[in-house]
Amino acid sequence: MILIADSGSTKTEWRLTGNGITGKSVFSAGINPYFINTDEILNLLEKEIKEIKSTKPETIWFYGTGCNSESKNDSVSLALESFFSTKEIKIGSDLLGAARSLCMNKPGIACIMGTGSNSCYYDGSSIVSNVAPLGYILGDEGGAAVLGRKLLTGVLKNQVPPAIAALFFETYKITRAEILENVYMKPFPNRFLGQFAKFISANIGVPELRYIVDSSFDEFIVRNVNQYPEAKSLPVNFTGSVAYHFRACLEERLRKNNLIPGKIILSPMEDLVNYHLEYPNL
């Protein structure tokens, strides 16, 4: 049996597959080794996915945000080995998982647009080039955390209609002081900011909110996608909650930037399962 995990900033999806059987997905919080250490990862696993601990998969493929260096990958691997008692553990970036899911064994531009954002040119087997995403403070253009940050700025600086600001505070039952505390003093501010993308989606007809989305997608294209020469001729594919739920806006911005919209999916898991079943000897 193979256990496949796809971990973003907010949640991790786990799926057992093999021997003609594919189980249902189990979910836990996101696992980013830049924010939590090996012991904290192990504690998270014990609390949130204890029901699959006894499965003892032969191989674990873990694709995760923040899994981009040997030390960070080792931190995740040690926790997984201790929890599952599995020796064969393979760690890849969430971007590699997205590329394999979106493109399989064909070249393409693969992008993630969820809580954060990322992109690459994938040649059908590996990531050839990648513009650094830089996180929600310095980058992550188009991601939910950036959309949420821009919304909060608009609400707190009176850049949205008063009725929309009032609706925001009525919806979330939160004060200005609590917003600042969550952003600057509490852990995982990216998750806090990312939740507000739903408010933008629910009120996308408001010009000021539509502008947040359109301008953020344009920034993602200009600062990331356009740096891949291959994007001029290959489809630009996306996975992630923002890409999926704002699909119409995203496809419009891609076309206006003379790019070819490709596959847009909510989660890479289904196609990742297919990829590993088709290529079991990776």
User: What's the shape?
Assistant: globular
First CA to last CA: what distance?
14 Å
The count of helical stretches stands at 13
Nearest-integer average pLDDT: 91
- Number of strand elements: 11
Helical amount: 40-55%
Largest sheet, described in full?
Answer: 6 strands, mixed
Low-confidence stretches: none
Helix/strand order, N-terminal first:
EEEEHEHEHEEEHHHHHHHEHHEH
Structural class: alpha/beta
What share of residues are in beta strands? 15-25%
Rg is 19 Å
Short description:
With 282 residues, the protein is of the alpha/beta class. The chain has helices at residues 38-48, 70-84, 94-103, 135-138, 144-156, 162-172, 176-184, 189-194, 197-202, 207-223, 241-245, 247-256, 269-278, and strands spanning 2-7, 11-18, 21-22, 26-29, 59-64, 88-93, 108-113, 117-122, 127-129, 235-239, 260-265. It contains 13 helices and 11 strands.
